[in-house]
Amino acid sequence: ARSLDKLYNFAECAGLQLILGLNALHRNPDNSWNSSSSLSLLKYSAGKKYNISWELGNEPNAYRGMAGRSVNSSQLGTDYSVLRTLLQSVRYYQRAQLYGPNAGRPRKNAIVLLDTFMKNAGSVVDAVTWQHYYMDGRVRKVEDFLKTRLLDTLSEQINKVFKVVHSHAPGKKVWLGGVGPAWAAGTNNLSDTYAAGFLWLNTLGMAAAQGVDVVLRHSLFDYGYTHLVDQHFNPLPDYWLSLVFKRLVGPRVLAVRVAGLQRKPRPGRVIRDKLRIYAHCTSSSNHNYVKGSITIYIINLHRSRKKIKLAGTLRNKTVHQYLFQPYGADGLHAKYIQLNGQKLVMLDDGAFPELSPVALRAGRTVVMPPMSIGFYVIKNINAYACRR
């Protein structure tokens, strides 16, 4: 109870919505889910009026390898139905959100599990969750984080999941319920460095472009090397990218067309492999920009600078640039990041520093340095799609 109190209070203070994963491996002799401890937890949480959403288990397709026991997909679907009934029996949680099954990467056994789960319990969950990790955590080379073929695996996985989900429940929301650069807790001096930012921003852009509603990062703190803050609570590069993304990028996705594109891109893949461009309406919660503004974010994986000219109505507007590069001599291995040339660190009082843009005059070419990430807000464009 004390642990839950601390966790919930943290979420409340941070303005976060808490989703609590219940233990799916509490089993009865017939291998059905033993819900007794979960019911106690629900009653305690209801008594505290904790606004919590729920999930059951984590990567059920891997239980045999991780825990030496297995739960087949039909049983898992039944267990989720039991949990939904349990939620409805506790008055405070009758309308609580339920997510699942949090399957692993959609390879053969995970796809079979997801397909059967959707048949038996697709109507029970409010969103279908699954996880994606780009590579084995034992990888040792920074170059592996830069392979365009690797970045594109996410697009293929999203398509597989959507195909299964929508064959049973058209229109059902799909969430990435866990994501990171590498599984097996990630890799020291890679998963927690600037280099991992290319994979992270690629995930956010590609998932949004293909209709994934929510992306949950694994993890915030103290697990392996994929966390967003270090042991002293200092933000790592992916945290700063996430913070600027949340401040500038709204949920409405815009199409990107690039002159001179040599071949038709796959969904979520634009302007050649090593230069990736995504566009959204600017976040409506950012009061520095009026409604109708557009945010473009760009990943440059080339080892040379690239020039990008904004065309049409974009050409004659002032652009605010938020350009990220590694800070210090470690290059891609850096655990510090700079914004428009300034190292990003927390202030002495624990507050965020000012994340100020550089204004580019109207008509100026956008120049992306080698191995850089940039956010560009086109101000006052009054884009029709972003006024609604």
TrEMBL record:
Alphabetical list of InterPro entries matching this protein: GH, Glyco_hydro_79
GO molecular function: hydrolase activity, acting on glycosyl bonds
Superkingdom assignment: Eukaryota
GO cellular component: extracellular matrix; extracellular space; membrane
GO BP terms: extracellular matrix organization
Family: Belongs to the glycosyl hydrolase 79 family.
Official protein name in the record: Heparanase 2 (inactive)
